Amino acid sequence: MAYHVTIIPAEKRSAEPITSAELDRKPVTELGWLLVQQDGETVLRSESEPAVDLFLHEGTLWTSNPTEPALRKIVVLADALGARARGDEFETYRSDLSTYLHPEDRRQIEATRISAFAVIMNRYGYSALIVLGIAGAALILKSCGMLE
Predict the structure, then answer these.
(1) pTM assigned to the model
(2) Which of the residues in the chain have pLDDT under 70?
(3) Which of 74, 67, 71 lies closest to 33, judged by CA?
């Protein structure tokens, strides 16, 4: 399974999507990135080692399985764009590659957990929760990936 890192708009950008127009100007080009079209997709490609391709999709940039040096380049780019680099587990990367859980992501995670609980309630009703008990409900939420 691939690990994805996504550059997403941060609060400094007022959540404006990342566009191909801004990827083809300074400071992006000064950082050694080149905007190309590849198989009908917009790709931001690093011009120096380590090689990294970032795919523009719905206002975000993403890549799979970046090396640590590539991740450092991604974090620098994200900062230049007024954005942030986030991994699959909702961890946001700092320039030293340490991570933290961003407040916006905390809200999204909580909303997802509440949504999962609502799905269980709609599908199985209160009687299922009584039969299963609190431990059973926790196991269901955990198996859905909604409980840490």
Answers:
(1) 0.72
(2) 1, 12-15, 113-121, 124-137, 148
(3) 74
| Element (DSSP H or E) covering residue 34 | strand 33-38
- Taking only Cα atoms into account, the Rg of the chain, rounded to an integer number of angstroms, comes to 19
Contact (Cβ atoms closer than 8 angstroms) between residue 22 and residue 6: no
Residues 6+ apart with CB under 8 A from 60: 6, 7, 8, 9, 17, 18
Neighbour order of strands in the sheet with 99-101 = 33-38, 41-46, 53-57, 60-64, 4-9, 83-87, 91-93, 99-101
pLDDT digits (tens, 9 = 90+) for 38-53: 999 999 999 888 889 9
72-79 — which CB contacts under 8 Å span 24+ positions? 72/97, 73/31, 73/46, 74/5, 74/7, 76/31, 77/7, 77/28, 77/31, 77/33, 77/44, 78/7, 78/10
Can you tell me the distance from the alpha carbon of 102 to that of 34, in angstroms, rounded to the nearest whole number? 29
